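Quick one - first record:
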Amino acid sequence: MANELQTSLQDCFGDLPDPRVQGRCDHKLLDIIIIAICGALCGAESWVGIETVGKAKEQWFRQFLELEHGIPSHDTFGDVFAKIDNDAFQKRFIRWVESVFRVTRGQVVAIDGKTLRGVTMERLGKARSIW
């Protein structure tokens, strides 16, 4: 079906430009993105939290990610996301959310009001937003 929505993270983020120096990366960009999104969905609020979720669920992640060098460190998550084109990431993230979470008449979607008001983790006393 030509109009079928992309639903996997791989489909939506597979073409995200990798800003890192090729040949000097231990972790695949897509692996970093998938672990970060899953970690955030699990409630992680920092890169350390993302790393913690990744390590706690490493066996689960290994079912569909290679993870040749294990779970990336919190520093790796921070460095990579600091370099990613925010607009390109946001476009793909929205495409993924829209394809996975279809709202039908009568459904309610909860939106985090702090995000809508522009509150970032930096304003909450964290070093930097995870997105």
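second record:
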Amino acid sequence: MPKPLKIILIAIAIAALIFGIWHYFSDSDQDDSTLTLYGNIDIRQVELTFHDPEHIAEMYVKEGDQVKKGQLLAIQDLDRFQYALESAQAKVEAQRQIVERLIHGSRPEEIKKAEDDVKAAEAEVRFDKKEYDRLKKLVKRHLTSVESVDRARFKLEADRQKLQALKEIYRLAVIGPRTEDISSAKAELKAEESALKLAKKIWEDGHLYAPSEGIIQDRIMEPGDMADYRTPVFTMALIDPVWARVYVPEKRLGQLKYGMPATISTDSYPGKIYQGWVGFISPTAEFTPKTVETPELRTSLVYQIRIFACNANNELRLGMPVTVSIDTLSKKIIKEKSDCPEQS
């Protein structure tokens, strides 16, 4: 072999050895210390709707407004809901009076009247009996007609039936309503009260409130539009939690633990570091998304993880590209937002 060629081959071998040693130690350092990942800021979004169909009366926020939990965002035209509510309230009150009347039973005046009616009927029956007996004696002496006797007998029987009915009315007035009637009236009252609760809920649902703290992203409808549960009125981005969605290769997955601290940086605020922690590790692998641009990850199977961010000033926005660094040797554990260290 010519000497120049031999020298070249030896030089190439030495260079390859040096590169291999450098690559080995470089990977070893990476495996044992800092894990750098790339991804985007992600947040949860909600679509806010009214429940029942009605025209929108007023809207109080617009795109970009930051809102607090429980803040009133919009209301519908409440007239129909108000009428239904007042009707339900009146029905409940009427049924409540019926129940009260049944529970308290007959009034003393009603019992006294029933008793007087019985006494009057008894007197009428006594008179009818005497008249019937008198006419029977007269018919034997041919001083009256048989028809008169029959009419007297029929009247006596009718007044006896009337007396029996009045006695039953008096008895019922004394003992009061049946237990079954009271139970039935109470059940009807309960049904009316449920209808009132529903009417109140419908009226309340005519008001649209922010479910949590967030930022209005889209104002989809306007006053005068017909709104119901099928069409969102606003789209709102939730401020908390905010996380960086990144992907880690399978060979590095074993180095991660829930609560492990991490740092987040972005080109939007050069030099500023946001603290965070590992809050989610996907249980299943997937192909590397196209948004992950690092060459060594493009053809690998990866696991999605979420780095929850300490975002006190709401500077991290949806879709923002970020770089995440994780110290895989750290023993510190962060469990919730209150454990966030101060941002640098």
